[in-house]
Amino acid sequence: MKRPILLFILLLSQIIISQEKFLEINNNFKEGTRKVHTAFPVVDEATGNFAIFLDDDNNIYGFLYSAALDLIGEFASEGLAKKYEQIIGYSVNGKEIRLFLKDRKDKTFGSILFNFENKSTEETLYDFKLKNEVYVGGYSDASKFHLVTINKESSILNFYVFEEGSEYTKQSLDLSKESFYDNQGAVQHLYTIMATGGSETRFGNFNSFKIDKIDSHSPNSIETTSEILKMYPEKHGFKLTIDTQTLTYIIDVSTEELNYTLSTIEKPSISAPMVNSNSFILDDKIYLISSSDEEMVFSIKSLETGKELKNLQVKKDEEIIFKNTPIIQEGGTYKDYREMEKSSKFLRRLSKEDIGVAVVKSNNDYVITMGSKKEMVRGGAPMMMPGFGMPMGAIVGFTVTFNPTFYAYGSYNSTKATRIECLFDQDFNHKSGDIPKNVFDIITESADTFPKKDAETVFKLNDSYIWGVYNKKLNQYTLFKF
Questions:
Q1: Is residue 120 part of a domain?
Q2: pTM, whole model, 2 decimals?
Q3: In the chain, how many domains are there?
Q4: Full domain range(s) for residue 280
């Protein structure tokens, strides 16, 4: 028995060596037995300062650090107003951090200001309530926060802009001159296309949208990328993509000038009455997948020119020669992991379920995942179920949706999709061999050495990934750098 134990210890030591202890935060404010169930970071891109907030559903504990890891300030607050259940963004002004919140119905909004200078908080309830507008998402850009909505049955996007020291302003982008086509070729409002993805099926009054925020430079799962609405946060703006059966609309918004450009990318063509399709953006390219139960087509195009750089096709009776893994099915009724042998079964799933494609760089290569997930509702806004695979910080208390890196990590590690993984070189030629480990694989291996993983978070700081976990016995939050 000694030899296996020794091997386990050696393996464990190698995993631990791969992680670097970054910071230990002693939560000296913590009293009582309430569990710290949520942790979330706020990074000041201008200074490199960052804050870690811990929540036990009774108090919020805030810790502000400099880029050199010097403690700037810390204090405990009674927490957030119970009326609000979701933190949608933030703004930073020196030693002040304001968190923006909304209620469950996406109608009313507020904020709480954490002042690390005088160790105080200040809550604000905003004097507007969405009536003829639908909440789209929140976008944080240093000292400003943008709350984005769309007018019902219109193509008008609204931006409520919050900046510390000023009253919020409301500005709009009118896309009414643009043409948005549904799957039958009829012109529709942007609102309708966002709600249905071009489908004729309508779900109520579209009181909310399901929009996934994408950190495209991190590994992503099919659960994340198979949504028809995706927001790609960037510096001083974001891309909003809407997928219909034959088209991808890309609304590229600059929050500095508050203007936009609209691009329309055609999906790969398939001769079938019903086609399932989706897209993914990484850097200056868009990755497109279309499938019927007879055929799948994968295409890579330049975002700037629309020129096709790669096209791969698979018929249902053909072998998928560009895959580097079996056809993997996870999350089934009877088995959590299965492998499919026939391409026809894979295409059948792609044609009936929520299809998606995800791309991540691996040195000079690309790992491309193609697959689908099964959803009860497609289009509109299916109910967000609590759990680690969803864009939320906790099952109890409030949810946190502004950190797409943590969402990607949680979804990646709880994937329940049917998929293949493929390896391509920098010119998108297929390469044989095993799929290399990515940063989330490495973080997971280290995380699995911990008996408990309370209040996990993952975020980017400079060029590194930071993973954090809470130790209840020591009342200590430890961050590791990868």
A1: no
A2: 0.90
A3: 1
A4: 206-436
